[in-house]
């Protein structure tokens, strides 16, 4: 992951509604949730939900899949893992390897 991609994803998650939406989908697991259930859980209008979903989809954090007449939304776990890894990759690196990895010297 590069810094530009990370910045875009963090910006997308920087909105309280989108962050709540994303957390709802992360909690739902790999099966995801139908759009109507997401809307019910968040208590927001369909047009607002659609706007926020599109922003998360554009930034690779969420996917949608049509199953017959139902639209299923899912968190993209590899993207989440990559973003979290990007944020933590260099944690304490300037302190030296033993401290950065959490091992006692």
TrEMBL record:
Keywords: DNA-binding, Transcription, Transcription regulation
Species of origin: Bosea thiooxidans
One Gene Ontology MF term: DNA-binding transcription factor activity
Family annotation (InterPro entries): ArsR-like_HTH, HTH_ArsR_DNA-bd_dom, Metal_resp_trans_reg, WH-like_DNA-bd_sf, WH_DNA-bd_sf
Protein name as catalogued: ArsR family transcriptional regulator
Gene3D superfamilies documented for this protein: Winged helix-like DNA-binding domain superfamily/Winged helix DNA-binding domain
A Pfam short name: HTH_20
Positions of the HTH arsR-type domain: 1-95
Keyword Ligase attached: no
């Amino acid at each position: 992951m590069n810094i530009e991609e990370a910045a875009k994803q963090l910006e997308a998650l920087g909105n309280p509604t989108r962050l709540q939406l994303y957390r709802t989908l992360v909690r739902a697991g790999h099966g995801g949730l139908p759009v109507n259930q997401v809307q019910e859980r968040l208590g927001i209008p369909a047009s607002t939900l659609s706007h926020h979903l599109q922003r998360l989809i554009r930034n690779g954090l969420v996917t949608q899949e049509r199953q017959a007449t139902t639209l299923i939304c899912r968190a993209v776990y590899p993207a989440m893992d990559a973003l979290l890894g990007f944020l933590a990759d260099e944690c304490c690196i300037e302190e030296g390897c033993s401290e950065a990895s959490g091992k006692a010297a």
